[in-house]
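Hi team,

As requested, here is the filled-out complex form for the dioxothiomolybdenum(VI) ion run. I kept the field names the same as last time so the parser does not choke. Let me know if anything looks off before we queue the next batch.

— J.
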Amino acid sequence: MPLASPTLPPQMSINPNGKQPRIDGPVKVTGSAMYASDHNLPGMLYAVPVCATIANGKITALDLTSAKAMPGVKAIYHHGNIGSLFRSGPPQGFSGVIDEKRPPFEDEVVRYYGQYVAAVVALTYEQAIAAANAVKVTYSSSAPDVSTYLTSTEAPKVDSHRGDPDAAFASAPVKVDQTYVTPTETHNPIELHASVADWDGQAFTLYETSQAVVNHQNVMAQMLGVPQENVRVISRFLGSGFGGKLWPWPHALIAASASRDLKRPVKLVVTRDMMFQNVGHRPQTQQRVRLAATPQGKLLAVMHDSLNHTSILDDYSEGCSEATAYSYSVPNLRATSALARRHVGTPTSMRGPGAVPGLFALESAVDELAVALKMDPIALRLLNEPEKDEGLNMPFSSRHFIECLKTGADKFGWANRTPGVGSMKKDGLTLGWGVAGCSWIAERMGASASFELRNDGTARIATATQDIGTGTYTVLANIVRENTGIPHDRTEVVLGDTNLPAGAISGGSWATASCIPAVVDAIQKAQQTLFGIATAEPNASFPGKKAADLAFTDGKVHLKDQPAASGIPFGDILTKANIRAAAGDGKSEGTFGDPKRKFSTHSFGAQFAEVTWQPEIARLRVSRVVTVIDAGHILNPKPARNQIEGAVVMGIGMALFEETNYDPRFGAPINNNLADYIMATNADVPSIDVTFLDYPDLVLNSLGARGVGEIGLAGIAAAITSAVYHATGVRVRELPVRIEDLL
Ligand code: MOS
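And here is what came back:
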């Protein structure tokens, strides 16, 4: 059986009302939060890239004559004059990671439409755009391959294997064998990618929009060929990222190189159309799933063979079978993955990489198996609940998938479902009800943090992680409050700057889980520093006592054997000693890839969707979503709920709208703007009921928190397409669902 979850010590179970607003809210809504491209420095120049208009070939000539003569132009960079840019070496953990490995302008070869082939730097943005348009590029080109039927010439990689799935499948009485396709999807954070680079003759200051400032610093230092301490990366606020801002992209190097060469600050803003070609995307996936079961529904075999497209020059594996090996109990299983090369920009992580397209395929197949078995899809899942992670052969740290399904079924009213296609009606509409499971990795990475208790009664917590819009500022203040009793309005949180102690990436949904142990360690060390100050003559607040006699409760220091109310506020102790701050440096190790791990750590959930279908006018709507999430202890329910709701909205987009289309003749992404790349809007979004089970996972950290950034997107598309099947009888296996599929 899954391990029973331990319970939190009572003093940590604060935050009962869940109404804590974001501490960064006021600076955001008043417009004083500085995003990367808001930085305007004295003497700043503007860089505008020139993008290739072919997807496969070579530059044969670059005519800069008229561009150079245009007003305000300071320089035009290209392969011939960009100077030294290096490739970064193999990554070490989460340091040195970059998906598009070739530095800009490294050669004259073009491998995707829109690849930067030159960049103009001018006094104004308008002058730079005009001159970039005047650069004449001649190419020799061949037909690009952007075809959407994927085949691979490379041997597939076996991601997980147990038993004899081929034999078990061949002899099984009930089978599903289907192929599921998810399209290329493009990250569309509202804040565009942007870099403002400032070279002072020795060191760079880079204002970036980055989900990982420390990695960005490391990669930029390597590629620019300067020591790491000569690069400072600042990213205080982000208008989201969805994974597209995890790792650096070529524009950041163009801005930095130009600043170094021209000895002036340079701003480069990636435009919305470039966002579709130069800064990654979720690759197209094509996944064959084979399931076999007994007539009673016991799984006998699972095979999940996935392909995803990657670019010509880089290997990006989506990892679609991430969740396959541990989702269900099955004796025979094989999951493989392979790449298909296309003339597209290099793909990258997009919210829930791997698990999101992977669970669309797996959970759709489970629903198809339930139909084949004439079995309720929840009952089928309950029957195949594993007692441990059968892929890793380890216990789960905390898995409550069954409770997610049952709680969701109650909230949704699943007991009223009639299984027949089109059998449910309401107000003249046909209803479809679908369900899917979801899961996501729960890890933490090594982090460090510094904490100060200050003489004015305030606290300061600093770490080089980022708040990408998810609420990290607030959650760090929560960690401080839960461990010291110091309220939000007396806590300063400082993030997004490589001058701070190295912190976690804002990715993998593990920023919070990673910060907790480092912050708690820093707090405890600062308290020890304070106890030393409180007992040190001549200005001791506790003369004649030892540090070991003292305790810290609700912002006060008191004798361990005395009540907390008798204590002295920490600010008074510092003031008496004439010391500005008692500091502590905290550090923690990561769990990711830890060979000594004893538990499989994941979050789980159940997604329920209702669609309404009006065949007379071919109108399909998602009318209701219920989601139940088991993501450990929820530190702050309000932003956590925001995360799940936002992910569900994205899931509706994934199911019904999102798809990047490439022109087969030129390899250009053609719906490269917010009008033609269709996303879910408010009008597409029904009421979303989010429930957190809130079982702390103390294997991961002392507050039992996992993460909520990505799991809410997993499973939604399968729940919706299963609901569409229930309403219409049409099983859509290639996203997004199109109305013409249903006619
Ligand atoms: Mo997430 S795709 O790890 O930003």
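Two things worth flagging: The first strand starts at residue 45 and ends at 51. Residues 211, 241, 243, 246, 349-351, 353, 507-508, 710 surround dioxothiomolybdenum(VI) ion (CB under 6 Å).

Thanks,
J.
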